Amino acid sequence: MWSTFIVQDEEVRTGNASSGVHQPSCALDGFLGSRGGRRKRRHRTHPSSADGISENQEGKIKLTLFLAVTGILLTVLGVGTEFWVELTPSKSFYNNQTCLVAHYGLWKCCTKTFWVSDMDTKQEICGHLHLQGESNCTFFKFYTTGENIVLFQKTPEKNLTVASAMFAIISLFLMVMGSICIIMAVSKGVQFFLKPAAVCFILSGVLIFICLIVFHQSVLSYLASDQSIPLHHEMSWSVTCVGCAGALVVVAGVLFLVLALPYSPWEKCLPKKNSDI
User: Fold this and answer.
1) Which pLDDT tens digit goes with each residue over 94-128?
2) SS3 of the chain
3) Where does the record place Basic residues bias (predicted)?
């Protein structure tokens, strides 16, 4: 019996050696199998970020950010310049030799003097700002000393002018905050910052329009302060810049809000119909 076992063992060994195949043990197979199974399970159960930003969506966000930045630049240009309103009296307001034209914005007031002889004789009001003349600009005194300014024997409304300037500053601050949120959303790759950015841009656009309304009311109040001196007033190009900027940032805010939605509104409103072939 012992000889039979020895012969069988030798046959098994010689068979394995002749085949030249190394058979791993069952324990090693189980260990490798368990590690591979855990690795596969770990790969399957790895959570995919539902709040992430795809490449297509990132391109749309950058394009909308360019729209918002354009609005910010127009706002800075309009707020920083003094061509909000132009005031033009008659040619004979001071004397028959020179006439005066004024224009001002949120911070500064400028006057320009023209020679009456250089203008058309049929023209009743003083020349426009694009003509050559002597210019003089000063900041409003109520920002420094608290005093008001007298222009054409009229006084601009101090409270309304300051209020319109404050609305413009708050609007610019919200635009900067919205831009920071968009930059963080793109750099971090998450949609979380899109909603606060959209709120910031929409509120900034609304404040810009409120600023324009308040400033226009201040101009009307200024003109009504003394009816004895007729003035021709016209809103200038700085107001146009600020108005376009308000529209751009509101549109950008709405687009950011649409991009922050978990679904596409276009596909939600117009679902694709499955065509049977």
Assistant:
1) 666 777 888 888 988 888 887 777 676 677 777 66
2) CHHHHHHHHHHHHHHHHHHCCCCCCHHHHHHHHHHHHHHHHHHHCCCCCCCECCHHHHHHHHHHHHHHHHHHHHHHHHHHCCCCEEEECECCCCCCCEEEEEEECCCEEEEEEEEHHHCCCCCCECCCCCCCCEEEEEECHHHCCCCCCCECCECCCHHHHHHHHHHHHHHHHHHHHHHHHHHHHHHHCECCCHHHHHHHHHHHHHHHHHHHHHHHHHHHHHHCCCCCCCCEEEECHHHHHHHHHHHHHHHHHHHHHHHCCCCCHHHHHCCCCCCCC
3) 36-46
**Rounded distance, CA 13 to CA 92, Å?**
126
Task: Determine if the pTM surpasses 0.85.
Answer: no
Give residue 146's pLDDT. 72
Decide: 86 and 103 in contact? Cβ < 8 Å: yes
Of the candidates 218, 197, 204, 222, the one whose C-alpha atom is nearest the C-alpha of residue 167 is 204
Q: What burial class does residue 78 get, using C-beta atoms within 10 Å of its C-beta: 0-12 exposed, 13-18 middle, 19+ buried?
A: buried
Q: Tokens in use for 41?
A: 């399970």
